Structures are given as C-alpha cells and as structure tokens.
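Limitations

Structures in this collection are predictions, not experimental determinations, and the ligand pose is part of the prediction. Treat each record accordingly. The example that follows, with DQA as the small molecule, is included so readers can see exactly what is and is not provided: the inputs are given verbatim, and the output is the predicted complex.
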Amino acid sequence: MKKILVLNGPNLNLLGVREPDVYGTVTLADIEREVTEYAAGRGASVDCFQSNHEGALIDKLHEARGAYEGIVYNPGAHTHYSYALRDAVSSIDVPTVEVHLSDISAREEFRRISVIAPVCVAQIKGKGKEGYKEAVDVLLAR
Ligand code: DQA
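Predicted complex:
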C-alpha cells in the first residue's frame, strides 16, 4: 500500500476560525479526515502532521525519506520565504505536491512567489480542501 504524508505548516491548525472569509470554515481535522478517507478509497494510507515550527517540519521531511511514496504539503507562509524548507524538500527525493487552500496568485504581492514550488512536482491552489485530494491523485498517478 502506498503511504502518503500530509504536511501542514504554520497557522493551519487554526483553520475554521482563522480568516474564514479567505479560508472558509473547514477545520484542519476535517481536511485530514477527508483526505485520509479519500486516499484509503484509492488504496493509499495517509499520515498527517502539522507544526508551527520550521525545524519540526524540516525534521518531518527528513524522516519521510524511504518512509513515504509522496507528500502533500501546505507550507503556509513558509511558502513565500523559507529556503530551508525548500532545501529540505529538494534533499529527500520524495515527490511533493504543494497545496494552498486559497489562490495565492490572486492575493497580496508577497504571496505570489513560492520558493518551494520549483522543487515540487506540482502546485495546486485555490481549490480549498479539494486541492488536498487532487494532490493525492497527482501522487498516485506517478
Ligand atoms: C496558504 C496561503 C499562504 O499564503 C498563507 O500564509 C497560509 C495559507 C493557503 O493554504 O492558502 O497560511 O498556504
């Protein structure tokens, strides 16, 4: 069975209460449950991890080497500036799909840049929680 890691970065633990006009009212627990069920229906298992700490996310990415066939990753604001997380993704040789709930290309100027997307196999944005499932499809199609 294929194993997929669903990784969420800073502030995504506050989904549901955080800027609902931008991110909706879905919680991270809802997303994690739905993506786990969706992947199970496609014959894959999912582990979920969220952290507000860059180092914890780097450690998790390193641990993913040899343990997962793919990663679904919403890096939150790290997307726009964390070369350390970009280097972690490019160091581990595990296909990673970058996901954003909102359409980062249609928001503030600073959100239009992703320093992580160039080392990912795909970027999915603006599709809400459905984007996480689409990311599973991308990984399973490889
Ligand atoms: C986000 C977009 C980022 O710009 C923001 O910092 C987030 C959430 C999204 O899912 O739309 O924390 O990654």
